[in-house]
Amino acid sequence: METPSVDADPNARRVAATAADDADPLASFRERFDVPGTYMDGNSLGALSTDAEASLDRAVEQWREHAVEGWTDADPDWFHYGERLGEKLAPLVGARDREVAVCGSTTANIHTLIATFYDAANDGSAANAANPGTVLVNDLDFPTDHYAIRAQLRQRGLDPDAHLTVVESDDGRTITPDAVERALRENDVDVLFLPSVFYRSGQLLDIERLTDLAHEHGAYAGFDLAHSAGVVPHSLHDRGVDFAVWCHYKYLNAGPGAIAGLFCHESNADLHPALAGWWGHEKETQFEMRHEFTPAAGAGRFQIGTIPILAAAPLDGALDVTLEAGIDRIREKSVALTDYLVDLVGTLPDSFAVGSPRAASRRGGHVAIEHPEAYRLTEALKARDVVVDFRPPNVIRVAPAPLYTGFEDVLDVIETLRGVYETRAHEEFEARSGGVT
After folding, report:
1. According to the model, what pLDDT value does residue 131 have?
2. Which of 40, 43, 300, 436 lies 20 to 30 angstroms, CA to CA, from 64?
């Protein structure tokens, strides 16, 4: 898909963007979404599709009709809901059917998988148990990853400061593979856990290379795919990734607080979950109510509590849209949209900068626009129905979600931003305060 030219003439620029939208093979999917204003915050919460709404309505009707019998009599039945959605989702992350489960929240899944793999690394010998290694993270991570890992280390009587290997960024935006390799070489690392895409800058990491590096140094390789699931293709099984977690409310458009997902490579299928719960018990004997836990086959063993049907149902319809569009076509359009956005930022005054990698192969689905007045500019954009978000200290995040965003939308964001800045309209807003951004 070609990126429209950024012509110096505003009219020509608009004509080019319109022509690109007319030629877009995914353009018709926008009709299936309710999109509020010029919406560029799909990397925080995706828009509602008619498909997601219909699958939620269907679950409500099944509850009305069947009540408790819905666990067996609903179509599809609720008892196997998480496993069925996992199989449906597997192609989007390059997994085999039993390697994916839909369950919990991203943070809860980090807890159980970090704990499981860290214990596995340290149960192999008395020496390891007496002198456990570290978990490798980085200083640009989303905070919840560190909260969960530190909590699991404390639960094992370990000092998190001594058992975290933190890879530091040289530029405050990105992490290099060489820095990760150096950290692996210089430290006794048991588990590598990194994001696929950094939530601020949008840097896309090379999962294949990082997985190989982790394995070469005797560590498990895990990833947080929150900012790539649904917008970047993955090959988790073939790349040998040990485990991964992600959410579904961003690019997969499953709704606020939607149920999350996880992956566990089949080579690790014998690991006993560190956090066991009855929904991870093998289905065949689950209702025999045995007090001894028998793990389900595959990733389903990491389910803990009963699946929340109403939080999972919108994902069913949302996946229909994504699978119909095709993850490769979604990625192709995403690259074109973000390339265009990067080019357009170059037409703004010099006080604006792109904080994301320029090369599309190193960039996820959003672009970080940096400016000292990023917070007030973000607020001014929202007041004009251009929905973006702010991340401290100086980032306006713009995420053109491919299923419902076009090139004219991207142009509108930049032209509105230009107008706000040139008229100093952002100065009407207070400096940053607390609250949801």
Report:
1. 80
2. 300
Indicate which CATH number applies to the domain containing 247.
3.40.640.10
pTM as predicted: 0.95
Residues 199 and 316 in one domain: yes
Q: Are residues 336 and 316 in the same domain?
A: no
Say if 436 falls within a structural domain: no
> Would residue 4 count as lying in a domain?
no
Question: Would you place residue 329 in the very low, low, confident or very high pLDDT band (cuts 50, 70, 90)?
Answer: very high
Structural domain contains residue 44 = no
Catalytic, out of 97, 142, 188, 391: 142
The Cα–Cα gap between 109 and 99 comes to 14
Q: Measured between alpha carbons, how far is residue 152 from residues 113, 167, 292, 310 in Å?
A: 10, 19, 23, 29
Judge whether residue 435 has pLDDT over 90.
Answer: no
Beta strands in 379-432 (DSSP E): 386-387, 389-391, 395-398
Range of the domain at 417: 10-34+326-421
**Domain for residue 391, yes or no?**
yes
Looking only at the bridges linking them, the beta strands covering 367-370 and 164-167 are: unpaired
69-86: string of b/e by CB count within 10 Å (b at 16+)?
ebbeebeeebbbbbbbbb
Catalytic one of 224, 316, 389, 412: 224
Which residue in the list 98, 239, 250, 333 is annotated as catalytic? 250
Residue 354 belongs to domain with CATH number: 3.90.1150.10
Is 250 one of the annotated active-site residues of the chain?
Answer: yes
pLDDT, mean of residues 180-194: 97
For 203-247, write each residue's pLDDT tens digit. Answer: 999 999 999 999 999 999 999 999 999 999 999 999 999 999 999
Residues 311, 261 share a domain: yes
Mean pLDDT of 175-191: 97
Q: Active-site residue 249, yes or no? A: yes
Of 350, 413, 337, 301, give the one whose Cα is nearest residue 38: 413
